[in-house]
Amino acid sequence: NSFTYGVFGGYQILNQNNLGLAVELGYDDFGRAKGRKEGRTVAKHTNHGTHLSLKGSYEVLNGLDVYGKAGVALVRSDYKFYPIDNHKDGHRVRASGLFAVGAEYAVLPELAVRLEYQWLTRVGKYRPQDNPNSAIAIRSRLKLFYRPAKLSLDPFDAMKKVVFKATPKGVLVDNQTPYYMNYIGLLHQNKPAKNVKMVAPFSQAVFEAKGVRSGDKLKWVLVNDYGADQEGDAIAQ
């Protein structure tokens, strides 16, 4: 899951007896994904492109329409690989069928809001010559938190306040901040720790790792407020 955006323009061909027909031309950022291996980001994948579609609508209530769209999208997929398996960065441009259903409500005669589900196919699959069936793995995350207003510490500053301590079982993560720390990875000597999880405010958790000593370098990854991976370094105490 990721935040996306788009712009479009349209022309109303037909609008009578509660039925509407329009053509739309637009540009969309179709989202991004990261591939991970052993707690590390090894690949990034982004999609964006233009689309042309025909939209049919029906007015069910005053100002409320339901609609369906069908068209074609020309999508560019960009791939960035980190230095493993000798992969090189690249991109692909592919055409895809585009289908969508949704609802549209006219808040004002000049302003409407939409809720839409959109579907694409044959876009984004990475196909190197020596392995025609390989693809990018996608990891989806959903989180919902209630955060009290006027916390004294900025969330990005809070990440730096977390203390990592060497223990016989691995790393004790001591979060004495008012924020949840949604950890998804911890590396010690390029080896991923086990039992990595979210650490609640003013609490502790142990991430399992072997041979961690005071002064060792650690690398952590967590999911920030925008749903993106946030990476950082720490020294075990």
UniProtKB/TrEMBL annotation:
Identify the residues that the record assigns to the Pili assembly chaperone C-terminal domain, covering every copy.
Answer: 173-230
- Taxonomy, superkingdom: Bacteria
Q: What Gene3D superfamilies does the entry give? A: 2.40.160.20, Immunoglobulins
Q: Which UniProt keywords apply?
A: Chaperone, Ion transport, Periplasm, Porin, Transmembrane, Transport
Its cellular-component GO annotations read: cell outer membrane; outer membrane-bounded periplasmic space; pore complex
Q: Where in the cell is it found?
A: Periplasm
Where does the record place the Outer membrane protein OmpA-like transmembrane domain? Answer: 1-136
Q: A Gene Ontology molecular-function term?
A: porin activity
Cited InterPro entries? Ig-like_fold, OMP/PagP_B-barrel, OmpA-like_TM_dom, Periplasmic_pilus_chap, Pili_assmbl_chap_C_dom_sf, Pili_assmbl_chaperone_bac, Pili_assmbl_chaperone_C
Its family remark reads: Belongs to the periplasmic pilus chaperone family.
Q: Could you tell me what this protein is called?
A: Outer membrane protein P5
Native source species:
Haemophilus influenzae HK1212
| Taxonomic lineage of the native organism | Bacteria, Pseudomonadati, Pseudomonadota, Gammaproteobacteria, Pasteurellales
